[in-house]
Design a protein that fits this description.
This protein is α+β, with helices and mostly antiparallel strands. The protein has one domain: HIT-like (HIT family, subunit A, 2-Layer Sandwich), CATH 3.30.428.10. 30% of the residues lie in helices and 15% in strands. The protein is built from 3 helices and 5 strands; from the N terminus they run αβββαββα. The protein has helices spanning 4-10, 57-78, 131-150, and strands at residues 22-23, 27-31, 41-45, 82-86, 98-104.
Length: 161
Amino acid sequence: MKCLTCLNLSGEQPIFPESRIYESRLWLIEHVYPTKLLGWFVIILKRHTESLHDLSREEFEELAAIQFKLTKQLNEELKLQKEYSVCFAEHPSYRHVHFHIIPILKSLDEKHRGSNVFSLLRIPEEESISKRDIIKFCKRIKRALQVIVSGSRRESQPWFG
């Protein structure tokens, strides 16, 4: 079975490139679609591997910095109760290391907590937050992350990229 993540990365079968908020030579970040949760991002390794133990120190270090900055900014934007960081890479079409960063609002129903949150991802497009609203949100997040990078806000860790 073809890796849909690799097809997305190559541009052969893009998933939602308009939502891309970050790209380096190692990782990129896009918003998932369709979803009922605004702020659900996927951090995607730009080379194909199926196991975390195959990541280099450099890949892990950048991943940590990305998760740090992204979760801080999501909380600032959405006032979260918590965030989930999830990497299964088990779906037959997505056996490629990628991390879901999932915003959990206080108002999220208990039936959608834990791994059940994925029921908010596998939905018909007509039930999803609109692409337009997601793109608008992504532009705000991207601008805010660029402000962090430029040094207009003090952060102890650099933003990679």
